[in-house]
Structure formats: structure tokens, C-alpha cells
Design a protein that fits this description.
Elements (H helix, E strand, L loop, with lengths): L7 E4 L32 H14 L4 E6 L9 H14 L4 E8 L6 H9 L2 E6 L4 H7 L9 H13 L4 E7 L7 H10 L4 E6 L3 E3 L17 E3 L6 H18 L5 E2 H11 L15 E4 L4 E3 L10 E4 L5 H5 L2 H12 L3 H4 L4 H4 L7 E4 L5 E4 L2 H23 L7 H13 L2
Parallel strand pairs: 1-2, 1-10, 2-3, 3-4, 4-5, 5-6, 6-9
Antiparallel strand pairs: 7-8, 10-11, 11-12, 13-14
């Protein structure tokens, strides 16, 4: 970890405050960590401290800021105009890039004009067509959100703002992969992220944080909205088979792009597939720094950036141990696995199952990734060969057509 000095911070400038009440959201309940604070908004002093120290702590030419929530648009455009001014003030010649994750409900001319003028990359959360999206994604009052999200996407396209879509894969859409994929393409998304919804809820309803960590000592059950492992594997494979025949180099799907990195032997650009973790930190509204966006728990609080320099917290012994535990805690079943090079046990938050050897700590989605990475193996190997010979990986589409034709002539 100490060698890179290029950690990433997911900033929650409004904490868990949101205008939606998504059924599967793991972050809404984080408000219970701050019961005495009614104003979950990062104040000017904390904001300036973070921007200054984060830029100074990164020793590479480009510094990436990621703004999330909750819902960051609730802070208003003026708040982010102040952020841009502070970034310019402390940039010291470095290139500043901003990513902004939103549910899209409040996007309008003002927001999208700002994004366009300041080169923000915007991620929009949407799970599929209306009947799918509205299953778990709705307003605080229970109203459907789909129409407003589409309206927000239209504003982004009007101002030519670069955007991607984030689709949570849950019980609502796990059996409709092509319906989801074709819909995302139809709304103009060329950069797609699929995020599996996997959470366990404590049986004890008195717990302030009911969505628990893997080693929770009491009884917990996988939530009814979590994706089924077998279905998630089928979901990825079905979309991959369509993409690899039709859309390579036209549509970019994060899981497939990172898989190609793995097959090329590169370090994965997505933390869940890295050998170790710990370089992706979560910053709460009051300056509290946590080990990871999925580990915002009291036991994973590293400190507060008002009291300690952010880099000293990121490279603290506690965080180094947290990051290395991803590799050090792998069950033997994983260590012996033929797709370990691509999966690396995926996210530690999902490691609460038992292996066939009886070892605790197997990833809940193991069967999905084992099936998926084995399935894509021949296609990935072909694309790696093309890259190694300075040819476009998209040649895989013609290769498949030729193979299919030859098979048909037998």
C-alpha cells in the first residue's frame, strides 16, 4: 500500500441524506452513526481541509475527486461551485478531475450546465425499465422515480455531459439481463456498471446498523432483495455473450473491462477484484474517515481529518492490516481456484459463506464468478492475443462469427 501514494476517497458531503428511500440501500441507515447531528452537511472548514490535504497527499499529476451520498445534488450547485474554486486554489499545477454519483432526480439546466462547464463525469443510478427500476428505487413517500431519472438523463445529454450508468443487480432484475442491457443502451449509456446487491440483516431489530459485516457474532440473514449467486452468474454471462458478439469497443461494461485487465496480467482498476484493498476510503460529512464505503462501521473508523492528516490515516497500521486481510484471509478453496487471478475473492464484505472444505470466509458470489470467468476464458484469451499483436480486441466479434459459421457447416 505505501508504495502507491495514490489512494482514492469517496466523499459523502451530505452523509446519508437522500431524497429517495431505496429498499436495498446500504447507506441510508448510516445516519444512526450520528444521532445528535441533525445537519449532515460538510461545513466549509472541513471541506477546505479535505480538498487541500487530499491534493497535497497525492503525488501523481492527476487528482480524482468522487462525490457521493446520500444524494449530493441536495447541497445545491453553489456548494459545488465553491468546491471547484477550492480545488483551483490548492491544485498546485495538478490536474483535477471530478466524478459525481446521483440518483438523477434533481438534474436540470443549472446542474448540467455546471457539470459541462467544469468537466464533471456524472454517474446515474438506474436499474432498468420502469417496472424494474421502481421495484426498489422510490421517493421517500413511496412514489416511483423512473420518469424523473429519464428526465435527468435528457438534461445530461442536452448539455453533452459525459455520464455512465450504475445498475444494481438484485432480485428485481437478476432474471432479465437482456431486458436491462438493451434498455441501458436505448437510453444512450455506453459506460455501464453492474453492482451486485448483497447484504445481510441482523435478526436483532434493536441494532442501530442492521446491515452487518461478515463476522457479525449474532444471527443475520441475507436480505430478500439480495441477488441470487447462480442468477448473478447467469446475468453476467447472458449479457457478455450478447456484448462480445455485437458491442465490443462500442459499449464499455466495467466488469468485462476489468476482466480483460486480469487476463492481460495487469493490476485490476476495480478494488473488488484486486488482491488487496484499503486504498479506497470513505469520508463522512464531519471529517470522519472510514476504511471503505462498505465498511462505514464504528470499528472501521480510522480517525478524523480535522485532527490528523488524511495520508497518515490512510497509511496507518490499522488500514494496512485491513487492506492486506483481503489476501491473507482467503480460504484454501480460493487459493486453489483456477479463476483466483481474476476474482481474488471479490469484496471482503461478501465473504460470509462456507467453502466445500468447511472453511468460513468464502464469498457469497463465488459460484457466480467461478462460472462467469470460466465462461469468458476463450474470448478473453483471444482479445489478449489481439492486444499483444497491436490489433483491436474488437476483432473477437469477427472471430466468433467465423467460428459460428464453421460450426454451422459441420
Amino acid at each position: 500500500m505505501k508504495g502507491s501514494n495514490a489512494f482514492h476517497v469517496m466523499v459523502k458531503p451530505i452523509g446519508s441524506v437522500c431524497n429517495m428511500d431505496c429498499k436495498y440501500c446500504f447507506y441510508l441507515e448510516k445516519e444512526n452513526l450520528y444521532p445528535e447531528n441533525k445537519n449532515l452537511k460538510m461545513n466549509d472548514s472541513t471541506l477546505e481541509t479535505f480538498i487541500r490535504d487530499y491534493i497535497n497527499s497525492i503525488d501523481i499529476p492527476t487528482v480524482n475527486f468522487t462525490w457521493q451520498g446520500g444524494e449530493p445534488t441536495l447541497l445545491g450547485v453553489d456548494y459545488f461551485e465553491r468546491i471547484v474554486k477550492l480545488q483551483k486554489k490548492y491544485s498546485s499545477g495538478k490536474i483535477i478531475q471530478n466524478s459525481f454519483q446521483t440518483n438523477g432526480l434533481l438534474l436540470n439546466d443549472e446542474w448540467c450546465s455546471f457539470f459541462a462547464a467544469n468537466d464533471f463525469l456524472v454517474g446515474v443510478s438506474i436499474d432498468g425499465p420502469s417496472e424494474i427500476n421502481n421495484k426498489y428505487r422510490y421517493y421517500k413517500g413511496g412514489q416511483n422515480s423512473f420518469a424523473k431519472v429519464l428526465e435527468g438523463l435528457e438534461y445530461l445529454q442536452k448539455y453533452k455531459v459525459e455520464f455512465n450508468t450504475l445498475t444494481c443487480v438484485s432480485k428485481a432484475n437478476q432474471n432479465k439481463p437482456l431486458e436491462v442491457y438493451n434498455f441501458l443502451k436505448s437510453i444512450g449509456s455506453k459506460y455501464i456498471q453492474f453492482i451486485p446487491v448483497v447484504e445481510r440483516a441482523a435478526k436483532d431489530e434493536k441494532e442501530s446498523l442492521r446491515l452487518v459485516k461478515p463476522k457479525y457474532p449474532k444471527t443475520a440473514e441475507v436480505t430478500k432483495w439480495s441477488v441470487d449467486p447462480v442468477e448473478y452468474g447467469n446475468f453476467l454471462i447472458t449479457i457478455f455473450d450478447n456484448w462480445v458478439r455485437n458491442d465490443v469497443a462500442e459499449v464499455f461494461i466495467q466488469t468485462f473491462d476489468v476482466a480483460l485487465e486480469s487476463f492481460c496480467g495487469y493490476k485490476q482498476s476495480l478494488c473488488v477484484f484486486n488482491k488487496t484493498c484499503g486504498n479506497a476510503i470513505a469520508l463522512e460529512h464531519n471529517g470522519d474517515l472510514y476504511s471503505c464505503d462498505h465498511y462505514v462501521y464504528p470499528g472501521n473508523k480510522l480517525g478524523n481529518i480535522i485532527n490528523e492528516n488524511i495520508s497518515s490515516l490512510v497509511y496507518s497500521e490499522d488500514q494496512i492490516v485491513f487492506g492486506n486481510d483481503k489476501l491473507n484471509s482467503l480460504p484454501k478453496y480460493c487459493l486453489d481456484c483456477e479463476v483466483r487471478f481474476a476474482c481474488n475473492g471479490e469484496c471482503p464484505k461478501h465473504r460470509f459463506d462456507f467453502s466445500p472444505y468447511g472453511e468460513y470466509g468464502l464469498n457469497y458470489l463465488c459460484v457466480a464468478y467461478k462460472k462467469f470467468f470460466n465462461h469468458i476464458n476463450p474470448f478473453m484469451k483471444f482479445m489478449v492475443t489481439e492486444l499483444n499483436h497491436n490489433r483491436p480486441p474488437a476483432n473477437v466479434m469477427e472471430w466468433i462469427k467465423l467460428n459460428d459459421k464453421n460450426e454451422g457447416n459441420k
